[in-house]
Amino acid sequence: MNAGTFLNSTELLNDSFFEKAIICLTEYDTKGAMGFVINKPFPRKFNELQEFKKSLPFPLYDGGPVDREHLFFLHQRPDLITGGTHVVNNIYLGGDFKEAVRLINHHLISEKDIKLFIGYCGWDYMELDEEVKEGSWLESSIGEVF
Asked: Gene3D superfamilies, alphabetically (predicted)?
């Protein structure tokens, strides 16, 4: 597996947070793996979070069960958002969050350019490999984040 791999949950994960989840892996190395559930809308909008109440109502996604106190984002606008980490193709993780918020609020980027996540998915080294081996996840190198 590599960063940029997409994982689809199988029926083995039904009745869990990961039921019908599609994950985009953003990191995969000897420290472990990190990714985001890209198909699970969060029940609140960005402007419903207290510190962003003056922002536009922008969709949030439930990125995973880890570190749900922070926001993360994937985008495909490195020309506008600096400091992101390249994941695969034109997908970048993070970067200048204040600039991203400014671009959202001024309608300069849209849902087709950026996804905001509450939380992420994380696995220790080889833990995800074991879950794939047991049949909990199906790997795909083809997927769409936006």
From this structure: VC0467-like
